[in-house]
Specification:
This protein has helices at 3-11, 19-33, 79-88, 113-120, 134-140, 144-158, 174-182, 205-212, 224-231, 247-275, 295-307, 333-350, 364-373, 384-397, 399-416, 447-455, 457-462, 472-481, 483-498; strands at 43-45, 48-53, 59-66, 69-75, 102-105, 126-133, 165-171, 187-190, 234-237, 242-245, 281-285, 314-316, 354-357, 378-382, 464-465, 468-469. The chain has 503 residues and is of the alpha/beta class. The protein has three domains: 3-76, no CATH class; 100-384, TIM Barrel, CATH 3.20.20; 386-499, no CATH class. It has an eight-stranded parallel beta barrel with strand order 5-6-7-8-11-12-13-14, surrounded by seven helices. Strands 1-2-3-4 form a four-stranded antiparallel β-sheet.
Length: 503
């Protein structure tokens, strides 16, 4: 056995061996397996050395010393091995992120983690590498275990020991909690959007009075009179500013968000019972609603959560302006900054907790505001943008496949856009046969082209014909065969997201 392997084995799981020892160890492992090894993936635990091999079908390698000789076993990158390895190598398991500035990096394909790690490495921004909503899992036909395992293998491949979070996003039911908690998620984003009454903003006095009778006061462990005594007509100190809460604003806040607070509290208490003493983080999200969350409404929601024993790590309000999928912010940036400062002041006063920016993909004009005004208490969530950058890599290396996907996106647009907040006009996007190969990646730089491809991801990944996937298998094969191009596209694009928040 070489001295290099001995040195790597002696380092331990939390340490990264020096490059010279890694190179020597990889050479000997290749000789023993006839496979190239990712040098960064080598990690020792006791007398075992774990690593990932390259190839169309990657393998987990486990090497150990027997009677002075090196014995190597190759295993599949399956759930059983991922779970065992997370117990063996703690850096492969997600952990709590806390109040660190963080970036959620959704991976709809399960191939993006190495590129995500490269994008955040050295920035000081905490990555959330296992992030997917129940809705996205359904559309991509993936399970919570598969989402978690994909992050595990990516972290091992990159040898990333900086710690990462995991976010079970947009949970609406106790069953959503059950399946994601069982998979090992550590952060749970509760989405009570179905319980938000957006009509409260426009109710007249009579309608508002009637609606107050329907607020679930029992679920909130309070009465209407007590609620009014806590907030109506009060002025609250937010440090450098004050927040006034007129009686009418308090009434509208209770009608609009009272049931949403009650649902969040019920989900939190159920989550506590499921986690049985295990540490976890909770986010409340009301971003997918019709009207912006006012400062008075934010204060009411956060104060009620605290009164009922819920301390979120982050809260996602519905901001002013439009946060459409896959493109930059549409709206008055100056007004966004003013209201963002108010949201941050409330979060500092009643928390602290982070302000979470959902639909955060490509909101570059928002990042400058959030980085300057957020005081570090910011969490940004991205998801679809990583799928789009995967398509960029496909456009570069497999133009014919990209053309097929683009043509299919035109066919699916009218149906798939129904569940998204988007405003693209596909008529402004050139058809596949009108584009030269070198023009294909440019579709992803256009507002309309980017949204056209974004909202159709689920249909692309699940389209089938005669019992076989139309695109899915070829898409995976292409990205796996050209992973360097894929990772490079992700690193370049996602680093633009992390850079404004870099420490």
């Amino acid at each position: 056995m070489s001295e290099a392997i001995k040195k790597v084995l002696s380092v331990g799981a939390d340490q990264v061996p020096n490059p010279q020892d890694l190179a020597g160890a990889c050479a000997e492992l290749k000789a023993g397996t006839n496979r190239d090894v990712y040098p960064s993936s080598l990690a020792a635990s006791g007398d075992r050395l774990y690593f990932v091999t390259r190839g169309p079908q990657k393998r987990l390698g486990a090497a150990r010393i027997e009677l002075g000789d090196l014995r190597v076993e190759l295993k599949g990158l399956n759930h059983e091995n991922a779970a065992a390895l997370r117990a063996e190598l703690p850096f492969l398991a997600p952990s709590l992120v806390g109040l660190r500035t963080s970036l959620g990096l959704g991976d709809r394909l399960g191939l993006a983690t190495p590129g995500h790690i490269r994008a955040v490495r050295g920035t000081g921004v905490a990555p959330v590498l296992a992030q997917q909503s129940i809705r996205e899992m359904a559309r991509t036909r993936r399970t919570p275990d598969e989402v978690m395992d994909a992050a595990t293998w990516g972290v091992l491949q990159e040898g990333y020991r900086g710690g990462f979070g995991s976010d079970a996003d947009h949970l609406k039911t106790p069953n959503d909690i059950d399946v994601t908690a069982a998979a090992g998620f550590t952060m749970f984003t509760i989405d009570p959007g179905d319980h938000v009454n957006d009509a409260a903003d426009a109710m007249d006095a009579a309608a508002l009075e009637e609606a107050l009778g329907s607020v679930p006061w029992d679920q909130l462990d309070t009465a209407r009179a007590d609620n009014e005594a806590r907030y109506a007509g009060k002025t609250f100190d937010l440090g450098e500013s004050e927040l006034q809460c007129p009686a009418e604003a308090v009434a509208r806040a209770a009608v609009k968000y009272g049931a949403a607070v009650g649902h969040t509290v019920a989900m939190f208490r159920y989550l506590e019972s499921v986690m049985t003493g295990q540490a976890f983080e909770l986010e409340m999200s009301v971003d997918e609603t019709s009207s912006p969350t006012s400062s008075a409404e934010h204060y009411y929601v956060a104060s009620e959560l605290a009164r009922l024993g819920v301390r979120p790590v982050s809260l996602a309000p519905r901001f002013v302006g439009d946060f459409e999928k896959g493109v930059d912010y549409k709206g008055d940036v100056a007004l966004l900054e003013q209201t963002f400062r108010e949201h941050v002041a409330i979060a500092n006063t009643l928390g602290p907790y982070k302000i979470s920016i959902h639909s955060g993909s490509d909101k570059f004009s928002v990042y400058e505001v959030a980085a300057r005004c957020g005081g570090g208490l910011v969490h940004v969530k991205t998801a679809g943008t990583s799928y789009l950058e995967a398509l960029r890599a496909v456009a570069l290396v497999a133009p014919d496949l990209f053309r097929e996907i683009l043509a299919f996106a035109f066919e699916r647009w009218d149906q798939d856009r129904a569940t998204y907040h988007v405003s693209a006009d596909p008529a402004k996007v050139k058809r596949p046969d009108e584009l030269a190969d070198e023009e294909l990646p440019g579709v992803l730089d256009q507002f309309d082209g980017r949204q056209l491809l974004h909202v159709t991801f689920g249909s692309v990944l699940t389209a089938s014909r005669d019992g076989s996937y139309v695109f899915r298998d070829r898409l995976y094969e292409t990205l796996q065969a050209h992973e360097d191009e894929h990772y490079a596209a992700l690193e370049k694009h996602l680093r633009r997201h992390a850079a404004p928040f870099a420490v």
